[in-house]
Design brief:
2 helices; about 425 residues; mainly beta; Leucine-rich repeat, LRR (right-handed beta-alpha superhelix)
């Protein structure tokens, strides 16, 4: 769209009293000052253009409630944007912004702000004036810290800060009493302030991919938490207080340095998903049977030498992964996992499988590659729902005839065995 065409559209919009104007994806490089004359405008969409700046006249659009300038080439927002006091939604993501203007504090009715995928290195203290804000999306910037004034955003329900360079959080974050979602993954956080435990409304907390070595005891105050993501940190232990998070349904602590689990973890009897792969666990404490709602349990890549029989009382379990451990045998009680669909046992030191494994009638996928099996129980032939059976890289010289039907379906993988036939 050329400037003459744009001027014609703006003039017509002014004469018609247009309330919503869509100028998105028109390859616009600039806006004329006349844009500020559209006094009836309520919504303005300028996304997907090549704008390098917004003219100061934009501040004259006093009735504007929604402004979308995402996916442009803006390096700054004009101070006059603070005059848009009726604005409830501001979308400036995917530009080249290095800062937000202090005048943004004038947007006291703003409820949604997206400034993700920019080049912000800090936030102005004045951001604390956005007291109506309920949704703030600042992911994929270069933020290294947050101003204490963030604690004034007491209406905030969702805060997204992933993929920044945050090294710490201000203690004032504990004042965000309405917060339900806090996304902090892929930052450089080395610790959390104790005040994080004050976020009693929080239901989802994502801390993956940071540098956390410990969690504060106050973590137990997050009693509304349903989802907790702690993977890819440097945690050596979980605090006993984690047992207070009794509403938790998903706990992900993969790729840390846990050598043991606190017994209090088994107070979490609402857990459905428990992921602990990639740690240094040598054994599981007693009490595992109390997690009787668990449907997925991942213990891959630890140092386990045995599975406690009580793991086999988890009769809701659908997915169990204990691959890449140091297991030499399985408990006979494994046959009690009647709901199991997927069982991963590869990369252990198993020399045999218990006959009872044939009782897993719902099993679809069984992975037992790279062990030391010299034989396979005939009972596996009863697993008529199997879709894949991985027995590669063992010491098998023969197979029972009861497996002939499975083999004929070409779902049995046997490479790397010294089979006679």
């Amino acid at each position: 769209m050329n400037q003459n065409e744009l001027s014609t559209i703006i003039e017509k919009a002014r004469d018609d009293g247009t309330t919503s104007l869509d100028l998105s994806n028109q390859e616009l490089e600039s806006l004329p000052p006349e844009i500020g004359g559209l006094l009836d405008l309520v919504e303005l969409d300028l996304s997907g253009n090549q704008l390098k700046e917004i003219p100061p006249e934009i501040g004259g659009l006093a009735g504007l409630t929604r402004l979308n300038v995402r996916n442009n080439q803006l390096t700054a927002l004009s101070p006059e944007i603070g005059n848009l006091t009726n604005l409830t939604g501001l979308f400036v993501q995917s530009n080249r912004l290095t800062a937000l203007p202090p005048q943004i504090s004038g947007l006291t009715r703003l409820s949604r702000l997206n400034s993700s995928n920019n080049q912000l290195t800090e936030l102005p203290p004045e951001i604390g004036g956005l007291t109506s804000l309920t949704w703030l999306y600042l992911a994929s910037n270069d933020l290294t810290g947050l101003p204490p004034e963030m604690g004034d955003l007491t209406s905030l329900a969702e805060l997204y800060l992933h993929e920044n360079r945050l090294k710490s959080l201000p203690s004032q974050i504990g004042r965000l009493s309405a917060l339900t979602t806090l996304q902090l993954d892929r930052n450089d956080l080395g610790e959390l302030p104790p005040e994080i435990g004050n976020l009693a409304s929080l239901t989802r907390l994502d801390l993956r991919g940071n540098k956390l070595t410990a969690l504060p005891p106050e973590f137990g105050g997050l009693t509304s938490l349903i989802w907790l993501y702690l993977g890819g940190n440097e945690l050596t232990a979980l605090p006993p207080e984690i047992g207070g998070l009794t509403g938790l349904t998903g706990l992900y602590v993969e790729s840390n340095r846990l050598a043991e689990l606190p017994k209090e973890i088994f107070n979490l009897n609402s857990l459905i998903w428990l992921y602990l792969e990639g740690n240094q666990l040598k054994e599981l404490p007693s009490g595992l049977h109390r997690l009787n709602h668990l449907i997925q349990l991942n213990l891959r890549s630890n140092h386990l030498t045995e599975l406690p029989p009580e793991i086999c009382s988890l009769n809701s379990l659908i997915f169990l992964d204990v691959a890449s451990n140091r297991l030499t045998s399985l408990p006979r009680e494994i046959g009690n996992l009647a709901a199991l669909n997927e069982l991963h046992l590869s990369d252990n030191q198993l020399t045999s499988l218990p006959v009872e494994i044939g009782s897993l009638a719902e099993l679809l996928d069984l992975f037992v590659s790279n062990n030391r099996l010299t034989g396979v129980p005939e009972s596996i032939g009863r697993l008529t729902n199997l879709e894949s059976l991985y027995l590669s890289d063992n010491l098998l010289t023969e197979l029972p005839s009861e497996l002939d039907d499975l083999i004929s379906q070409e779902i049995v993988f046997l490479s790397g065995n010294p089979l006679n036939n």
